[in-house]
Amino acid sequence: MELKEHLRAANAEAGLIKIFEAIEQASKVVQSEVCRAGLGADIYGAKGSENIQGEEQQKLDVYADECFIKEFRASGAVAGMASEEQDNALQFDASLEGEYVIMIDPLDGSSNIDVNVAIGTIFAIYKRISPVGSPLNDADFLQAGKHQVAAGYVNYSVSTQIVCSIGKGTHIYTLDPKSKDYHLIKESIQFPADGKVYSINEVNLDDFDENLKRYAQHCKDKRKADGKRMYTGRYIGSLVADFHRNLIKGGIYVYPATKDSPKGKLRLLYECNPMAFLAVNAGGKGSDGRQNILEIEPTELHQRCPFYVGSPVMMDEAIG
Known about the structure:
Elements: H1 3-9, H2 14-35, E1 46-50, E2 56-58, H3 59-75, E3 78-83, E4 90-91, E5 100-108, E6 119-127, H4 138-141, E7 148-156, E8 160-165, E9 171-175, E10 182-186, E11 197-200, H5 210-221, E12 232-233, H6 239-249, E13 251-255, E14 266-267, H7 268-280, E15 285-287, E16 304-305, E17 307-310, H8 312-319
Parallel strand pairs: 3-5, 11-12, 11-13
Antiparallel strand pairs: 1-2, 3-4, 5-6, 6-7, 7-8, 8-9, 9-10, 13-17, 14-16, 15-17
Helix pairs in contact: 1-2, 2-3
C-alpha cells in the first residue's frame, strides 16, 4: 500500500495528506542529490556559513532546507515552518489559510555526508493556534510535543524510507526506485520491550552525571542467563540512524547534558519531540532524563534539551 493510500485509510485530514505529499516530493529530490554525491554533484563539504547554533552548514544542509521550504510553501496546507537552518520561523504569506505549522531538521547527521554514513530529515507537524487566515505568532511554533498531530523522519541509507506516525501507530515506508512511490513495509512497528543496543557517546563519560555513569556501567555488566552480555554499544552520531536501528532491534539512545553542554545538545522542537512522538506511538518512551519530553513547554525556537529515547525496559533502568 502506498503512503497516501495508507493515510487515507487512517482517515487523515486532507491538509495532512498534502503535507506528506510535499515531504515525499522533497525527500525524493534530496535523495537524488545524495545518491549523486561524488559524481559531479557539488554537495560535498561546507557551505562557508553557520546556522543560528553556530554550527557550520554543509552544502546539502542548505539544499535540503530549500527543497522542503519550496514543497511546503506550494502545498497550501502549511502556514509556516521553523527549520534548524533558519534563524527565525518562516511565514508563508500566500498560505495563511493553511492549518498547519512544521518544525524540521532538513538534514540530520550532515557532518557524516563526506563519509557516506546514513543521514536523514526529521519533522514535526502541529495544528496552528492562531486563527486561520491571520499572521502566525510565537505560540504557533512554541507548542509542547504532546500537541503534535504527526511526526516522522526520512532515512537516506541503503534504501530511502519514511518512518512516521499520525498518532495511530508508527509505520515504515520504503521508496521504490522504479515506481518512485513510498510503499508500506511495516505497520504499527513496536520497540522491543528490552533492547540489545545502548547508543551513548562514551568518550564524554567523565562529563556525565552520576546516574548516567551508573547506567553506562550497568549496560556493560548486565548478562543473559548463559553469561553472555545483554547489551552492546553502537553509536553512529546520526540521530536518525541510531534511532532507526534501535526501533528495529530494540535499544536506547542517550544524548545527555554534559559539563560543556548543561542544557544538552539536541533541539527540542525538531529533533527530540518528533522522535519521542514516534517512540511513544511504537511502545517506547522519550525523556529529558527527568520527565516525559512531550510535556515540556518550549520557550525558544532552537531550544536545546537532553534526550533519552528507546525501549521501555532500558528507559526505566536509565532514568530510575
